[in-house]
Amino acid sequence: MTLHSIPNIKHTAANNFFLLSGPCAIENEAMALRIAERIVSITDKLEIPFIFKGSFKKANRSRIDSFTGIGDEKALKILKKVSETFQIPTVTDIHEVSHAAMAAAYVDVLQIPAFLVRQTDLVVAAAKTGKVVNLKKGQFMSPEAMKHAVQKVKDSGSNKAWITDRGTMFGYQDMIVDFRGIPTMREYAPTILDVTHSLQQPNQTAGVTGGRPDMIETIARAGIVNNVDGLFIETHYDPAKAKSDGANMLHLDNLEKLLTNLVAIRKTIVNL
């Protein structure tokens, strides 16, 4: 399991799911440290392996005036500070070949966005850094198609690939999770369920993506019951003011109760 190869990963012997969590985008140092500190406290208590998530840049926005970041190097340095402050690994997404080596100098896991997972040069560049590569399943792709993305990582000399399901397009303005795909993708690589992005409602007329955060626990519970290896949950202490994806984000105050419930379900499943 590639989880053990990640620097500073904790609680790997707990037989729990692992968690990728944090804000959608790095807005400033104070917010990143505040969110990380809270999640570290919760995951240490529940013995959940935790990787802090934050995008150093948002390149796939609906409108040109949408927030894209505070500066690449500035945001990456904040991710590095989070890692050093709390002794935890970090993950960020990359959008261009040139981002791979740059981001790899600061974080432990490189994430390929769902819209870009078929971009061969990008996947190869990420794999060649030697970092774990988290491949987000395209909203337009079948679970079976993800074996080719994983194979690109392997053909680039790495066996460090994960798959993340973030829902499939259902009409123009909704997403749906097909849980039949979880066991299929787990045949190719450790599989994560991106709970919050699966609840997005894209293509709104206002140009701002909507969401259904009220369904977060429903989707997360179903993921655990269906043996996902990890969960991806974006969270913020003030989602309404978050600069990206606030509409589908979990309020930080609700994270501990959610994870407590999920750990209980996990223990039940493991003991069956």
From TrEMBL:
Residues covered by the DAHP synthetase I/KDSA domain: 11-264
Keyword list, A-Z: Cytoplasm, Transferase
Catalytic activity field: D-arabinose 5-phosphate + phosphoenolpyruvate + H2O = 3-deoxy-alpha-D-manno-2-octulosonate-8-phosphate + phosphate
Protein location: Cytoplasm
Pathway(s) served: Bacterial outer membrane biogenesis; lipopolysaccharide biosynthesis; Carbohydrate biosynthesis; 3-deoxy-D-manno-octulosonate biosynthesis; 3-deoxy-D-manno-octulosonate from D-ribulose 5-phosphate: step 2/3
InterPro entries in alphabetical order: Aldolase_TIM, DAHP1/KDSA, KDO8P_synthase
Family: Belongs to the KdsA family.
Protein name, as recorded: 3-deoxy-8-phosphooctulonate synthase
